[in-house]
Design goal:
The structure is a single chain. This protein has about 1050 residues and is mostly beta strands. Among the domains are: about 1-125, no CATH class; about 930-1064, no CATH class. About 0% of the residues lie in helices and about 65% in strands. The protein has a 108-stranded parallel sheet that branches.
Length: about 1050
C-alpha cells in the first residue's frame, strides 16, 4: 500500500508538479485527511492519474485540479468522501474519468460535489452512490463546443441530495444496469447546446423524487428503463428543443403539481410495456411530435387542465385503457398528426378540444374496446384527418360537438357509435366518415351539420337489429364533395334536412336482407349534388317531408330499394343533370311517391323499376322534365297527378309485368324529343282531363288492354318518328274533346281475345270532339283482331305521307258526327275480317297519293249522312274494293270515286251506291273500271248524275248464283259510261242487268287503238237500258269501232226509247 497521511493540524501534505502526477499501487491508493479544518489538494499542470485496485480519498475539503485530464481508475471500489465542505474535481482543458472496473463508486459529502471538465466520465461495474447536499457536474465553459457527461453503472445508481445539477454543452449519458434512484429538493439537468441530448438508460427502475421542481433542458431527451416513477412537489418539466423519447418496459408514473413536456422543434415519444400514469394539477405538453406507446393503461388526471401542443404529430398507442380526466378542459393540439390507439378510452372534462394541423387518430382495435367522451360542455375536434376508431363502442356526450379541418373526419365503432349533443357540427375539407357495426346514433338537440371538403361517409351496422340514426330537433345539414350513407336501418330526422354535395351522394341500406333507409323532416328536405345522387337498400327507402322535398344532381339521381320505396312531401322535385334512376329489385318490390306537386327534371334519362308495384301520386301537378330518356318499369305502375301529369324529355320507356296506370285530375302531357316505349304485361290505362303525348318514336306494347280516358279536354299523340300502339287485347281511347294522333309513322295493333268483341275503340263525346290521325313522312297502320270502332262527335281525319292501312280480323267501324277525311300521300288500305264501315254525318273523303284498297270479309259500307263521299287515288294509283258479303256506298249529296290506275269493285253478294240529292262519279285516268258481283245484286241509286269514266276498260260484270243476282243502276239524273281508250263491257251471266236514267243514258267507247275496241254487251238473261218515258231523254250507244250484242248466245235485244210514237 501507498499511504500518505497528516495528523498535525499545522502540517501540510502537498503534491505539485509541472508535468504529470501519477499515483499507482498494486493494492490500494488512499488519501486521507481526518482533520475537518484541513484539505487535500491535487494540482497538476498536465495530467493527474490515480490507479489502484482501490482508490480512496477522504478529506474535509477535497480539490483535484489538472490542466489536462484527471483520471481515477480502480479495479474494485472507489470512494470519494468529504466530511466537511465541498469536493471539487476540475480538468481545466481536458476530461475527468472515474473508472471502477469491478466494484462500486461512492461519493459522500456533507456539502457540494462539483466537477468541472470538458467531459466527465464515471464508470463503475457495480453500483454508484451519490450522497451530498448539492451535486453539480458541469462543463468548465458551457458555451464551448463539444463536451459530455457520461455515467455508466453496471448495477444501481443512487443519488441523495438537496439539489442535483447536471450541465453540459455536449451529451449527458446515463447508462445503468439496475435501479436509478434520485432524491433531491430540485433536479436540474441541462445539455444546453443546439444538438445536445440527455440519455437515461437502465434495465430496471428509475425513481426520481423532488420536493420542488424536476427540470430537464436539452436538445434531445431520451429515457429508456423498465419502470419510471417521478414525483415533483411543484413542477415536472422536460424541455427538449428537438425531441424527447421515454421508453419504459413496465410502467410510467409522474406525479407533480404541473407536468410539462416541451419539444420546441422535435418529437416527444413516451412508451411503456404496461401503463403510464400522469397525476397532476395541470398537464401541459408541447412538442413537434409526441408519441405514447403503452402496453396497458395510459392515465392522465389533472385537477385543472390537460394540454397537448404539438408542432407536428401527437401519437398514443395503448393496448388497454386511456383515461384522461380533467376538471376544466382537455386540449390536444398538433400542427400535423395526433394519434391515440388504446383498449378503453375515456375523456371526461368540461371542454374537450383536439386540434391537429394534419391528422388525429384515436383508435381501439379489440372487439370490446370502448371509446368514450363524456360530460363535456364543448367537444371540439380540428384536424385535416381525424380518425376515431373503436373495436367496441364510440360514445360522446356533450353540450356541443364540433369538428373542423382541411381533411378527413372518421368515426368508427364496431359495436356502436352514439353521440348526443345540442349542436353537432362537423366541418372538414376532406373525408367525413362514420362507421358502426352496431347502432350508429347521432342526436342533436338543435342542429346536425356536416361540411366535408371531399367525402362524407356514413357506414351503419349490417346486423338485423342494427340502427343508423341521425336525429336533430332543428335541422340536419350536409355539405361535401361526395356523400355516402350505408347501413342496415338508417334514419335521418330533422325539422329541415339540407344536403349540398359537390359530386356524388350515395345512400345504401345494407344488402344482407335487412337494409332500410329513412329520411324524415317536419319541414323541408333538400339534397343537391353536383354529380350524382344514389340511394340503395335491400328492404326499403323512405323519404318524408312536411313541406318541400327536393333532390338535385348535376348528373344522376338514383333511388334503389330491393323491396319498398316510399317518398312523400307536399312539394317534391327531382332534378338531375343527366339521369334519374329509381328501382326496386325483389318480386314484391314497391315504389310509392306521394305529394301535392311532384316535379322530376333531368337532362338525360329518367328510369323507374319496381318488381311489384310502382305508385307515383301528386295531389296537384306531376311533371317530368327530361332532356333525354324516361324509363318506367314495374309489375304494376300507377302514376297519379291529382291536377296534372307531365312528361318532357327525349325518350320515355314504360314496362310493367302487370298493369300501367297514368291518372291525372287535369292534364297528362308527354313532350318528348326522342322515343316513347311502353311495355305492359296486363293493362295500360291513362285517365286525365287532357292528354298530350309528344315524342320521337312511340311504341306501346301491352299484353292486355291499352285504355286512354279523357273526360274533359283533348288527347294528343304526336310522334316525330313512328308511333306504334300494340295491345294483346283492346285499345280504347275515350276523349271528351278531340283525339289527335301525329307521327312519322303511326301504327295501332290490338289483338283482342275470345271474350272481347272490340279490339280497338276510339270515342269522343263533346260536340266539338275530333279524331285525327296524321303521319308526317310515313304510314298510318291500324290492325285489330276483333272489332275496330271509332266514334267522334265532330271531325275525323287520317293523313299519311305514305300509306294508310286498316287491318281488322272482325269489324271495322268509323263513325263521325261531322266530316271524315283520310289523306295518304301513298297507299291507303283497309283489310277487315268482318264488317267494314265508314260513317260520316258530314263529308267522307279518302285521298291517296297512290292506290286505295278496301277489303272486307263481311259487309262493307261507306256512309256520308249529310255531305259528299269522295275517294281518289294518286298518279298510277289503283282503287280496289272487295267485299265477301255486301258493299254499300251511301251519301246525302255527291259521291266521287276517282283512280289514276285500275278501278275495281268486287262484292261476293250485293253492292250498292246511293246518293240522296246529287250524283255519283266513278273516274279513272289510267286503268279500267270493273264492277263485279258474284252472288247478289248490285243496286246503285242516285239522285244526281251517274258518271263512269275509265282511261281503259270499263266493265260491269255480274255472275248469278242466287235468284237475286240482278244488277240495277238507277239514277234520277243522267247515266254516262265512258271508256277513253278501251271497251265498255256490260256482262250479265244469267242475271238481269238494268240501267235506268231519268234523263239521258250514254254508253260510249272512244278507243281507236285496237280494231276490237267498242261496246260489248253480253247477257244470258235480260239486259235493259231504260230512260224515263215521260220526258224527252236520249239513249246513246257510241262505239268507236264495234258494237257487239250477245256474243255467242245471240239473245234477244230490245232497245226502247221514250216518247210518242214509241220507237224500238
Amino acid at each position: 500500500n501507498f499511504v500518505v497521511s497528516r495528523s498535525a493540524s499545522e502540517s501540510i501534505i502537498q503534491f505539485q508538479t509541472d508535468s504529470d502526477f501519477r499515483s499507482t499501487a498494486t493494492n490500494q491508493v488512499t488519501f486521507a485527511n481526518f482533520d475537518e479544518s484541513t484539505d487535500i489538494t491535487f494540482t497538476g499542470q498536465d495530467d493527474i492519474t490515480m490507479q489502484a485496485p482501490d482508490v480512496s480519498v477522504t478529506t474535509s475539503y477535497g480539490s483535484i485540479t489538472a490542466r489536462n485530464d484527471l483520471t481515477a481508475t480502480s479495479s474494485d471500489d472507489m470512494l470519494l468522501q468529504v466530511s466537511g465542505q465541498d469536493f471539487k474535481a476540475t480538468a481545466v482543458t481536458g476530461n475527468i474519468e472515474i473508472l471502477s472496473n469491478q466494484g462500486s463508486f461512492t461519493l459522500n459529502t456533507e456539502d457540494n460535489f462539483v466537477t468541472h471538465a470538458r467531459e466527465t466520465y464515471i464508470d463503475t461495474k457495480s453500483s454508484m452512490s451519490f450522497n451530498a447536499q448539492d451535486i453539480s457536474l458541469r462543463q468548465n465553459d458551457i458555451n464551448a463546443d463539444g463536451g459530455s457527461l457520461r455515467l455508466d453503472i453496471a448495477t444501481s445508481f443512487d443519488v441523495a441530495t438537496t439539489n442535483i445539477e447536471f450541465d453540459t454543452a455536449g451529451k449527458l449519458d446515463f447508462t445503468m444496469g439496475g435501479d436509478v434512484t434520485v432524491n433531491a429538493g430540485t433536479i436540474d439537468i441541462q445539455a444546453s447546446k443546439a444538438f445536445d441530448d440527455i440519455l437515461f438508460s437502465t434495465s430496471d427502475t428509475v425513481t426520481i423524487t423532488s420536493d420542488n421542481d424536476i427540470f430537464y433542458d436539452t436538445s434531445l431527451y431520451t429515457l429508456f428503463t423498465n419502470r419510471y416513477i417521478a414525483t415533483a412537489g411543484d413542477n415536472f418539466n422536460v424541455n427538449a428543443r428537438n425531441s424527447a423519447s421515454v421508453s419504459v418496459g413496465d410502467t410510467t408514473t409522474v406525479n407533480a403539481e404541473t407536468l410539462q413536456v416541451t419539444s420546441n422543434f422535435g418529437d416527444i415519444d413516451i412508451s411503456a410495456g404496461d401503463s403510464i400514469t400522469f397525476d397532476n394539477e395541470n398537464f401541459r405538453q408541447s412538442s413537434f411530435t409526441t408519441e405514447f406507446d403503452v402496453r396497458n393503461t395510459l392515465s392522465l388526471d389533472a385537477a385543472s387542465d390537460i394540454t397537448f401542443t404539438v408542432g407536428s404529430s401527437l401519437s398514443a398507442e395503448i393496448e388497454n385503457t386511456l383515461d384522461i380526466d380533467a376538471i376544466d378542459s382537455i386540449s390536444m393540439t398538433a400542427s400535423h398528426t395526433a394519434q391515440f390507439i388504446q383498449d378503453l378510452y375515456d375523456l371526461d372534462a368540461d371542454t374537450v378540444s383536439f386540434d391537429a394541423g394534419v391528422a388525429i387518430y384515436i383508435s381501439q382495435n379489440l372487439p370490446d374496446d370502448e371509446l368514450a367522451f363524456t360530460n363535456a360542455d364543448n367537444f371540439v375536434v380540428s384536424g385535416d384527418f381525424v380518425d376515431f376508431k373503436a373495436g367496441g363502442s364510440f360514445t360522446s356526450s356533450s353540450t356541443s360537438f364540433s369538428s373542423s379541418g382541411d381533411g378527413t373526419l372518421f368515426i368508427e365503432g364496431f359495436n356502436s357509435v352514439i353521440t348526443q349533443s345540442n349542436d353537432f357540427t362537423v366541418d372538414a375539407n376532406g373525408l367525413i366518415s362514420f362507421a358502426s357495426g352496431g347502432a350508429l346514433n347521432v342526436q342533436a338537440g338543435d342542429v346536425i351539420d356536416f361540411s366535408a371538403g371531399s367525402f362524407l361517409t356514413i357506414n351503419g351496422p349490417d346486423g338485423a337489429n342494427g340502427l343508423t340514426k341521425f336525429e336533430a330537433v332543428d335541422k340536419v345539414e350536409i355539405e361535401a364533395d361526395d356523400a355516402s350513407f350505408t347501413g342496415n336501418d338508417m334514419t335521418l330526422t330533422g325539422e329541415d334536412f339540407n344536403g349540398l354535395i359537390e359530386n356524388d351522394i350515395s345512400i345504401r341500406g345494407s344488402q344482407n336482407g335487412f337494409g332500410r333507409f329513412s329520411l324524415f323532416a317536419e319541414e323541408d328536405i333538400a339534397l343537391a349534388s353536383a354529380f350524382t345522387f344514389s340511394s340503395n337498400s335491400d328492404l326499403g327507402t323512405f323519404f318524408f317531408a312536411g313541406d318541400d322535398l327536393q333532390v338535385t344532381a348535376e348528373r344522376i339521381v338514383n333511388f334503389s330499394a330491393d323491396t319498398a320505396m316510399e317518398i312523400g312531401a307536399p312539394d317534391f322535385q327531382l332534378i338531375a343533370g343527366t339521369d334519374v334512376v329509381i328501382n326496386t329489385n325483389f318480386d314484391d318490390g314497391l315504389i310509392t311517391w306521394e305529394g301535392e306537386d311532384l316535379i322530376i327534371d333531368a337532362e338525360n334519362d329518367v328510369t323507374y323499376g319496381a318488381r311489384d308495384h310502382f305508385s307515383l301520386y301528386s295531389g296537384d301537378t306531376l311533371i317530368y322534365n327530361v332532356q333525354q330518356d324516361i324509363t318506367l318499369t314495374s309489375d304494376e305502375l300507377l302514376i297519379d297527378g291529382s291536377i296534372s301529369t307531365n312528361f318532357a324529355g327525349d325518350s320515355v320507356a314504360i314496362s310493367a309485368e302487370q298493369s300501367v296506370d297514368l291518372l291525372a285530375g287535369g292534364e297528362t302531357s308527354f313532350a318528348l324529343a326522342g322515343s316513347l316505349t311502353s311495355i305492359s304485361a296486363d293493362v295500360t290505362e291513362f285517365e286525365a282531363a287532357t292528354f298530350v303525348f309528344k315524342s320521337g318514336p312511340a311504341d306501346w306494347n301491352i299484353v292486355n288492354d291499352l285504355l286512354s280516358h279523357n273526360y274533359d279536354g283533348i288527347t294528343t299523340y304526336w310522334a316525330q318518328q313512328s308511333g306504334t300502339f300494340a295491345a294483346e287485347n283492346e285499345i280504347r281511347y275515350t276523349a271528351a274533346g278531340s283525339v289527335f294522333v301525329d307521327g312519322n309513322a303511326v301504327s295501332f295493333t290490338a289483338n283482342g281475345d275470345d271474350g272481347n268483341d272490340v279490339s280497338m275503340h276510339g270515342t269522343t263525346s263533346l260536340p266539338e270532339g275530333n279524331i285525327i290521325f296524321e303521319s308526317i313522312n310515313n304510314n298510318v297502320q291500324i290492325t285489330a283482331v276483333a272489332e275496330f270502332f271509332y266514334e267522334t262527335s265532330q271531325f275525323a281525319d287520317m293523313l299519311a305521307f305514305e300509306s294508310i292501312s286498316f287491318d281488322s280480323q272482325t269489324e271495322l267501324s268509323v263513325t263521325v258526327l261531322a266530316d271524315f277525311d283520310y289523306t295518304s300521300e301513298s297507299h291507303t288500305e283497309a283489310v277487315v275480317g268482318g264488317d267494314l264501315s265508314f260513317i260520316a254525318a258530314g263529308t267522307g273523303n279518302f285521298q291517296s297519293g297512290n292506290s286505295i284498297s278496301f277489303i272486307g270479309k263481311e259487309d262493307f259500307s261507306f256512309v256520308a249522312d249529310d255531305g259528299n263521299f269522295l275517294v281518289s287515288t294518286g298518279e298510277q294509283g289503283e282503287l280496289l274494293i272487295e267485299s265477301d258479303e255486301n258493299f254499300a256506298a251511301v251519301s246525302q249529296t255527291f259521291q266521287s270515286w276517282e283512280a289514276s290506275g285500275d278501278f275495281k269493285i268486287t262484292s261476293t253478294k250485293s253492292a250498292s251506291f246511293n246518293s240522296d240529292t246529287d250524283g255519283i262519279s266513278l273516274f279513272t285516268t289510267g286503268g279500267p273500271i270493273q264492277f263485279e258481283v258474284d252472288d247478289g245484286p248490285m243496286v246503285t241509286t242516285y239522285t244526281g248524275n251517274l258518271d263512269y269514266t275509265s282511261g281503259d276498260l270499263l266493265a260491269f260484270r255480274s255472275s248469278k248464283t242466287t235468284d237475286d243476282g240482278q244488277q240495277i243502276w238507277n239514277t234520277l239524273g243522267s247515266f254516262s259510261a265512258t271508256a277513253d281508250q278501251g271497251n265498255v263491257v256490260i256482262s250479265s251471266d244469267d242475271n238481269d242487268f238494268v240501267f235506268t236514267a231519268q234523263n239521258s243514258l250514254t254508253v260510249q267507247a272512244k278507243g281507236q287503238r285496237n280494231p276490237t275496241d267498242g261496246v260489248d254487251i253480253f247477257a244470258e238473261s235480260t239486259l235493259t237500258f231504260q230512260t224515263d218515258v215521260a220526258a224527252p231523254t236520249t239513249l246513246s250507244v257510241l262505239p268507236a269501232n264495234n258494237l257487239v250484242f250477245g256474243d255467242i248466245t245471240r239473245p234477244d235485244v230490245t232497245i226502247a226509247a221514250g216518247g210518242s210514237p214509241t220507237q224500238t
